[in-house]
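Hi team,

Filling in the usual template for the complex we talked about on Friday. All components are listed, including any nucleic acid strands or ligand strings, so the model treats them as one assembly.

SUBMITTER: L.P.
PURPOSE: interface mapping
COMPONENTS: two
RESIDUES: 845
SEQUENCES:
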Amino acid sequence: MLKYTLRRLVIALPVLLGISVIAFFIVRLVPGDTVTALLGAHYSEAEAEALRQRLGLDQPLPVQYVIWLGNVLSGDFGQSAFTGEPVLEAILNRLPVTIQLVAISICFAVFVAVPLGVMAAVGRSGRTDFFATLFGLLGISIPGFWLGVLLILLFSLTLGWLPSGGFVSLWDDPIANFRHMILPGLSLGMAVAAVVMRMTRSTMLEVLNEEYIKMARAKGVPKRRTIIRHALRNALIPIITITGIQAGYLLGGSIVIEQIFSLPGIGLLALQAITNRDYALVQGTVLFIALGFMVINLLVDLIYAWLDPRIKY
Amino acid sequence: MGGSAAARTDRRAIREQGIALLLLCLAAYLMVSGCAREERDVPMRAVPDEPVRGGVLTIAIQSDGQSLDPHRVTDAASMRLIENLYGTLMRYSDVYGEVEPYLAESYEISEDGKTYTFILRESVRFHETGREMTARDVKYSIRRIIEHEVRAEQFEPVDKIETPDDRTVIFRLTRPAAPFLTYLAYPMNAIVDREVVEAHDGSLDRAGAGCGPFRLVEWRRDRHLILDRYEHYHVQDRPYLDRVIYRPIPDETARTTSLRTREIHISLDVPDKDRGLLERATHVVVESVPGTFWEYVGMNAGREPFDDVRVRQAVAWAVDRDMVNQLVKFGRSRILTGGFFPTNHWAYVDMEMYPGRDPDRARALLREAGYPDGFEAVIRVGSAFPYQVAAAQIVKQNLEEVGIMTEILAEESGVFFEALGRSDFDMTVVGWLGFVDPDEWFYNIFHSEGRWNQQQYANPDVDTLLEQGRRETDMEERREQYRRVQEKVVRDAPVALLYINDQTSAYLDTVQGFRVHPTATTLSLRETWLVE
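RESULT (copied from the run log):
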């Protein structure tokens, strides 16, 4: 297992390198650059040239890339051209917000959707199944931002129970933190929950029809034990896969929810960086999001082995 | 048996349909109740006669600042964060367009208008070092502004700064400079603590080095900026508030919602679409003053066919300002038919040069200019400014009626502003934030050598008037000069003016003493207090 993990980490390096090349050059293909974004509508050519020189943007692109990569390898991700904030610091400041948001969404998805999916499969065509299907349909068809607005209307404006936005650090005040994160977590988690629920339901239905389940039941294994120990455990692999992929997407895809709930997460940081053509910041955030995706994938693969003894690395 | 099973299935189906219907009704109720619900009524508060000390006030701003260095920043958000940390020699008075001494106790201007002598106020102390501010700090700060280049131009006439003693500063100028006092009142031309700057290797990006009513406690980017009352502030018993928290809330609706749910006290910029909603809320006060954000249809006078003044005038006559205002701004902006300024500015002139839309006149002008069948042009707009894209769509329709066929190109801000900066456009719909002195409004945009003369407009008479306006110290003369500038620019129409927007802020009814300023400055926070 350790060897496998190390091998995966080694393979991750060329992938990250590839991503760094793409991130570096693609952001430079977009019309406009850091200088024009910094100077706005009002600048002279001489000013632009001076700033370009100061930021090192007058060098040929491959030279800029090599310099940047060299710095990254030594742990220096550069500075935001706009705020002067070190890129690494900017990312590390916002990463906990996004990680927490993703974690709450995934927890919601797993703790609600998996039991619901199992119950739907067990009671196929029954009332629970009907509710689960309705839940799945609503979850997939309601866009997260709209759900977010509805939740604000209900819980903040009408009932006044929860704040409508903002962020309080978990370490500063755990209760306030939870109150601020619950609505965005739900808004983001709903679609994931729907996907996971549908996946759980269909995989469980498949597994429940297997011979070994019938055998277990015939041998007198209690129903609950058959479902949880025999059926669910075998259905978990695709569920974990889909949850992992969704978690990866959420890392970079939570921009709209972060915007609605004024959460200072990595999605919003990436968006601002792209709008400002803040090259170092765009490259840094893209690399981190990619790294996050890869770590999640690795975790998923390791969980496979833990769940299914037949899988060995 | 079979019959009973069928009946059970039917009952179940009916029950499930019923539940589904119930759920749909609940969802519909949530939406409707959320949208239509009025704010819960709150009994009218008894406001004490005397201001009360204490309290924490939260202000929502559109975006977080880029830096806390007053001499480096250019964005409005940073200015909002910084302005209460620092002090300036002069400050804006309650009458818009006028200034009064602040860190200076008094000042004198020599007869030739080239020597300004300031006597500094006593017992002004810096937050971090507790040191008293001296003339050397003033000299250091102005030098630093010039070195940082961002606003160096404002101090271009400064030849020498002398500091004969700790409380006297003498500015010797190469020529009279009428807006000099206004520039000294600009909140970012702040006096900084030299020792703090040096301790931070010359950068104030994340440090406070001021002597203003509030001192810096913590800045966590994109989360909050916390300022605390400065107990040694030189004005006795001010400020009233113990703490001010700035929270960046980029989403317009989220800002409005936070105010409705009382999570914030002040929303500095209220979008037109939310104004009615907040006006209906019983616990919110919505206040508007004539603002300085003016918008226009820009034309590239350096490019055919807009190099012909008649073509530009045709556009100015063809645009239906009233329609654009009604459809885009909900009729809340003041259309500009002549001059530029808000009505409360001393340089405001009531001119009716394009009193209403006149397509016939526009067609006649186009015929005269040699374009009887009109022409084609592209209107470039920034997609980040949806209200300008919407305005461009109406302008397009207006122009089509006189034969000018346009295509709208909505681009991402970076691309759009770069094109504008290079004067690479036929037409555009965009706006400027004016400030206080007319020189700030006009010089760089309409002088042929102006830094931001994107329209490539050149009129020697306007150049001369703008240069005179910079030197003239007699108020009446200046008023006349800027009246003539406005008249000439509006007639030459490098820009077809659309409207000027109100500055609208909203705050909870517990907030007292806060004043909405045309430039959106929050300097009145030192006079602001909270009713429990």
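MY TAKE: The interface with chain A takes residues 12, 16, 20, 23, 30-31, 33-35, 37, 66-67, 74, 203, 205, 220-223, 247-251, 253-254, 257-258, 260-261, 263, 384, 412-415, 417-418, 420-421, 430, 444, 451-452, 454 of chain B (CB under 8 Å). The CA atoms of residues 496 and 511 of chain B lie 40 Å apart.

Thanks, L.
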